[in-house]
Every structure is written in C-alpha cells, then in structure tokens.
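agent> call fold_tool(seq_1)
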Amino acid sequence: MKDLKTEILVSGGLPKLETSRCAGSGEALLKPSLLPMALESSELSADRQPRDNWGSSLEFLMSCIALSVGLGNVWRFPFTALENGGGAFLIPYLVVLFVVGKPIYYMEMLLGQFSSRGIVQVFDFAPLMRGVGYAQLLALGVLATYYASVMALTLRYFFDSFASELPWSFCREEWGDGCVSASGGQPLQGQLSRNFSSSTQLYLQRIVLNETDSLEEGIGYPSGSLALMLGFSWLTVTLIIIRGVKSSGKAAYVLALFPYVVMFILLVRALTLPGAYDGVMYFLTPQWEKLLEPQVWYNAVTQVFFSLAVCFGVIIMYSSYNRFGHNVYRDANIVTTLDTFTSLLSGVIIFGILGNLAHESGTKDIASVVKAGPGLAFISYPDAIAKFKMFPQVFSLLFFAMLFMLGVGSNVGMVSCIMTVLKDQFVNVKLWIIVVSLSVIGFLVGLIYITPGGQHIITLMDFHGVTFVSLVSAIFELIAVGWIYGTKRLCQDAEYMLNIKTSNYYRICWSIVTPLVMLVILVYSLLTMRPLSYNGQEFPLVYRVVGWCVSGCIIGQLFYWAFYANFKQPKGSLKSRINNSIKPHSDWGPSDPKKLMDYQMFLRNKDEENAKNVNRRCVCYTAGDRIFG
C-alpha cells in the first residue's frame, strides 16, 4: 500500500472517478484508479480490529427473533390489548408498527451492518450525538439486571410446577379466611372485587417474594431461593455469550424456536376450552370509540417500541456482526412481521383462556375475569393454569419454560450489546473476562430486585432507568440519523451496501413521521405524568429523588458527550466547532479498507451528479434533497 502511494505521488495528478459494481452481488468493486483518493482514510481504519461474523445469515435472523419476540409479546401485549378495548387496540398497534416499528428497525440494521460498529462507536457519523449511545447503554444495563430477576421468578415457578399439586392452587391456613383457592373455579378479578385474594396472588406475595407493603422500613434482604435462581439465570446467559456470536448464534435456534412450539401447544389447548370462542371474538372485535382516546395510541406506541427492542442499541450491535452486503431489508421485514404475528398469536391464546374463565364463572364480561399489572405473569396466568382440569402441571412447566427461554433470548442480546462496547474499547482484554465480569456485576445488582421490596424497586427503575430515558434517547437518535447525518446519506449507504433504492415510505418516516410521533408521545407522557406508585402507594420522597437522579445521569450523557465532542474540535468559533462535530469521522463507513475507499468514491460521484443537476438551492430544495435525494 505504501509503495502504491509513493508511486502515485511521483506520477502526480488524480485519476478519473469511476466505480464498478459486481452484478447481482450488491457490492461495489474497487478499480485500481480509485485507490489514491482514499488512502488516508484507509490508513485510519487500519487500526480497527477485525470483527467476528455470524456463522450464517440464519443465526443472525434467529438471534433477532429471539431478541424481539420476548416477554413483551407473550406477557404484555394481551393485557395491554385487554385494557385498551380488545380488538380496538389492534388498529393503532398496526398503524404504529408501520410508521414507527418497521422504519426504526430497518434503520438500525442498516447502521450496524454498514459500519460494523457497536452502540457507541456507530455515532462516529455524528460525534456530537455519541451521548445517545452511552445513554442507551446505561438504560440497557438497568433493563438487563431486572430482566434477570424476572427470569429468576420464572425458574422458581418452573421448579414449583413439579409438585403433585400446584402450590399456588390452594390456600394455606396462615392466610386466613380472605383467601380463595385458585383451583376452585372462580376468576381472579371477581374474587378481588369482593375483597378476597386468590391463592395465586398470596403465593407470589407471601411465599415467593415475601413482599413488603411499603418501602418506609427499607427493602429487606434477598430471598435465598431466588438468589439461587438468579445465579442460574446469569450462568445461562454467560455460557451462551462466552465466545461472542460464535456461541450465541448457535443457541439462537433453540431460543427462537422453542417458544413457538410451546405457544402452538397452548393454542390448541386454549381453543378447545369451553367459551374460548367468545374470548377470541372479544380480542378481534374492535370497540371503535376507543380509537378516539389518546391513551390507546400512547400504549400502542410504547408496546411496539419495547416489543421490537428498537432504540436500545441491540439491533445495531447484532447487525454489526453481519457480512457487508447481507440483505437486512429482508430480515427487518421478516422480524417485524413475525413479531406482530407472535403478539396476535399470544392474544388469541390468552383471550381463549379468558373466555373459558368467563364461561366457568357465568359472566359475559371478558375484561372482568383477570387482573393485569406488573405481576400478571405470576398471578393471572398461574391462576388460569390452576383451573385446568387435565394435566395442569404439564402446561405450567411448558409455560414457565417458555417464559424463561424468552427472557434468556432477550437478556443475551442486552448483555452482548454491553459486552461489544467494552470489547471495542478494551481490545486487549479477553472476551471471557468481560463476559464473566458483566455477569457477576449483573448478579450482584440484581439481588436488590429479589428482596421483599424488590418489586417496588423494579417499578421505580423501569420508569426512571428505562422507559422515560429511552423515549428521550430515541428522539435524539432519530434526529441524529434523519437530520444531522441525513436521510439522503443513509439511503446512499443502503444503495451502496445492498444495491437497492430506498422507498419514499422509509425516507418520509425517517425524516418526518417517526421523529414527530415519538416527540408527541414524549410530550403526552410528560403532560399526563403522575407521581410514581406501586400497588396504589406513592414512593417515599427519597426514592423519587433517587429515581430522578438515575434519569438525570442517563439523559445527562447526551449533553456531556456533546460538550466533549465540541471541546475536542480545533479552536475556532462555536459555530465552526459544532459544524465539525456533526461531520462523520474520516474513517466512517465499511470496516474493510478497500470497501471504504470505494464507498468514498461512490459518494464523490453522487455529489458530482447532484452538482450537475442543480445550480441554485433554496431552503425547500435543501430540505427535500435531504429526504428524497
């Protein structure tokens, strides 16, 4: 390479700008005449470490499915639909999926694969916005730690299901006369409305969690049995990702496919129950008046946002291990479609069971037979399973094994994302050391969530450490990509990498619709915000202060790294430093030096074409050009 550079400098002059493209491959090839134009950048990129690749394109797809098809589909979606009008919720859900979910998913796949960078380094396209990556990284850390505690609960219920009689299906003497047996045939919500408690609720609160009513006296000590389950959960994650994508890719087949086997078994069982038809029809029949309620649309956005796991950086990380030119357009469509199908499948299963519960209790009100909330997976579902007349233990084992697999699939992605950032930063540290360290830290932090006050802390951290800050960072990410980097530039990247033109649907969503929808959702959440509470009790002041400090620390990353990027620029006016800090790094692009040089030539040719086609530019033209190119 050095000899070639010397030879060119001696000969002088610049070669003609031209590229060639391999037919059908979607990859541009570099002609010898292009080499000198990007030598400087290629030398800069030479320091970048070679990146592992997935064993096959199917491993990548299965990993994305295992990540996105998780507890949000099986646990959250059916009851979000139940609380928002049943079938009426499907319409805003599908609309929001179309204008928010799919565009962001495809955008993040493009960014990760094109740059082969993780959640932080990917913002080399606009260093001023690197804080978005750090904010998402911290939110991901919070989410991964309490997600593991949910996995621990599923394991506890899984092993409890081996008992000859499900331990939550009957009342214990010490619970008093206010307990009603879950296997007695009456629905949970009907019992609660008469100031009774189901044995499933009391089992969770008094036996499994030993839950405290308030945080005034502290959170207590971790449960020994749950600590053991938490350790097993982290050990499972560690073994799967100990060798990076080489090991996690193989496990993805089981993590992605096993839940579907269980869901189809549960589907057959649910649809053969008496009254199942009424429940399914309630799920599929819209209540049109609900479409006029802003809260329904807000819930649809949050459901799509967290179900697909967009704007957390995991999709970017997974895509960064792809081979350049892999068809992420196809994969993005497959995953988003399958995610929707899974949500609908879960809805049919759950509403079929709810229809059966309503049938047994002699009521037509499907919404009255179950209690939603943070503990619904360990109250409502076990309550329904306890009422099965045949083999309740078998269905309980299958159900909680499925929940555990869903949790593992999601947590593997989250921890892998953090691992990738650390490995990119500390290239000389062995991967297994990073993985084991993360797991030990995650286990120690997770102990707080399995204390008597743990569910209170989960509610606190879910809002302040995940939900709220993720909405904020998502908006900044969309602004960074759609307006600072530019939709036009992103579409050029997609054209170079995939050899396809980006449709106006994606262009308009990336530039206008998706950021606007997310901004409206954030404003709505701020306007309707109420003091955070758990089980009807507001958090003590000290916990609310801690919660907002966590939010401030995470959101503060946006401003700290923006200031840092501006400070690192050469001296000059504030405007010039800001302009420099929103320009891509000189080695931004494909990790392969030859592809990087060819990509830079591709951009030069595009700029020359634009210069020939227009002589004057106005504000409207500039805005339109950044969107439609």
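agent> call fold_tool(seq_2)
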Amino acid sequence: MNSLDALFARCLLGIYWWMGLVPLPPVSQLLWLLLALVIRLIWVSYFMWMLWTGISYVLVDRSMSVSYLTGSILFIGYSMLGLLIQAQTIFKQRSYVRLEDYRIQLELQMSRLSSSHYGHKSGRLLFLLGTHLASDIIKSWANSKYSISPVHIVSMMQKWQLRFHFIQLMRQIMELNQRAIQLRHSLLRLAAGNDLWLPYKLSDFKHLQTLRLSYERIYECHELFNDCYGWGMLCLQLLCSFEFVANAYWFITEAYDSQRLYIFIFNGNTCFTIGSLVTALFWYGDASANNSRQIGCLIPKLVKPLGSKRYNDLVSEFLLQTLHQRFVVTAKDFFSLNLHLLSSMFGAVVTYLVILIQFMFAEKSAQAAARPK
C-alpha cells in the first residue's frame, strides 16, 4: 500500500468513526467506548428529529401535492435508513470483528504469495467524493436561488453519512477484488510454469494449498461482508432507486412545463449523485463475480499427469470449491450486485418514467377537455 492509500485509509477510518459507521470499541477501551456511545446518541437524536419533522410535516399539511408527498416519504425513509445503519453496527458487532480478523488473516496469507497488485482505489474514491462535493455546492446554489427543497441544508449531514457509507462498502469490495486479482495472478504464474510432463514436487502441493486456502478466506470475507451490510444495502438500493425515479420524473416534467433552470440543475445533480454511487457499487460487485469465474477457469490448467494423486486430488477439490463458493455481493439474498441487475433496474426505471409521463399527458388532456370553450 502506497503512502496515499495509507493516508486516505486513515482519514476514512476517522470519518467512519465520527459518523458511527464502525462497530463500538471493546469494553476494555472504556473511554473510547463512552465517546463512541455519545457519538451514536447524537446521530440517533439527529435522525429521530428528522423522522419526527418529516412525519409532522405530512400530518400537518393535508393539501400537499404528490411531489411534496414523495419528497416527504424520501425524507422519512432516509431518516429510518440512518437509524438502521446505526443499529446495524451495534447488532452485527461480532460479524464486524470476524470480518476484520479474516481480512488481516487474508492479508498475511496473500503476503506469502510474493505478489502485489494494487489499483489506484484511493484516487478513484477521492475523485468520486470530489464530484459529489462539487455537485452539492451547485445544488445549494440552485436551492438558494429558488428554494426548491426546504430540507436541503438540514439533511446535508444525512446525505454525506450515506455517501461515506457507500464509500465504506465500495472500499471493502475493492480490497477483496484486489486480493482476488493477486490470487489470479499467482495462479497464472503457476499455470505458466506448469509443464505437464514435469515430475511432481512437494513445493507444488504446498503452494497450491496456500492458494486454495486464500480463495476460501476471500469467500468467507464476502459472506461476512454480506452478513454485516446486507440489510443496509437492501434498503439503500430501494430508496436510491425510488429517489432516482422521482427526480428523473421531476426533471422531465420541469422540461415540459416551466423550464426553470434552477430546478433543472437541482434535480439533475441529484440524479447524477445517486446514479454514480449506485453504478460504482454495482460495478465493483460485478467485478467480484468476474474474478471468481476467472479463477475457476484457471484451475484445470494446474493438473499434472505425472503428479501425485494427492496433488491432482487437491486440484479437483480446488475446482469444486470455485464452483460452489462464488464471490458474490448480495443484499440478504434478495439480489446480487452486478451489472446485469443494474441494466435491468435501468430498464425498469425507463418503463416507470414512460408510464408516469403517459399519465401526466392523459391528465393534462382530460383537464384541457374539461375546460369550457
């Protein structure tokens, strides 16, 4: 890991800690535990206040339009999601600790392979955060000019906590993907130097066993990751999809009706921020499945006709393992995060927008026909 990655990881860890996105410290660290509990209490109070504000706004204003009702539902939903994420870090404490232990064990196992393949994940995530910061500045400017969303400023902390939760998910998936790429490169080197007619050596068996155990550890990390973050990812994707459809519809209807520039900018930036986060997360989830398939395709190349039965049995066991233990990022088994699902979601969004626009035109036609001539 280079210095930029190390510095970025330290900064992110501090941000996660202050945003309540990491598990509570052990009881032995009493002062840190008390501080973490105070931070949790502040965040829970903030989300409860936002939840009450959203509910009271819906109950008091009975004559609100569908657009304002949709915005209020999103406001309430994101407040509940914030509470869920806080609860997730508490009730999944053991899974978080096991995931961190397995991650360290995996790092030690991969260091034995004498291979390193680090991508520029810090640069990509920094660029993503930079674009979102610029987008928020533009949205705040547009909102100050036209007062589009009355809760834009008060919900800013909530939005950034969710963004850093996205970054937290993506960074962990990217790290597991890098380990899988390291493993794949080691298998490629082993297969490239594997003359089928060379006699079997004991070091070949030990090396292959290390690779197999590394694959198993990566799979276990994926399973623990899904267990830790599954419910949060499920609710996050549902809310983000709903918000994307709503803002895309408002963007299109604004283009048809009033063509007010500030609302264009606000809704367009909202669609951009949601779409970029969801696309990036699904992209890296799809990369995990691709790495698993590519590793499985390399295993048959390791068979040695002159090798011992023990070695070839290990190759067969490794092959079966890759068939049954796939690297998959799932939201509590409701769906897997991959590009195929993302394309299906995009098709569904387009379908919903077409239906909504047809209803809009039908309503306008009915209103025009009802007017007296």
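agent> summarizing second result for user.
The chain has ten helices and no strands. The chain has a mean pLDDT of 83.
agent> awaiting next instruction.
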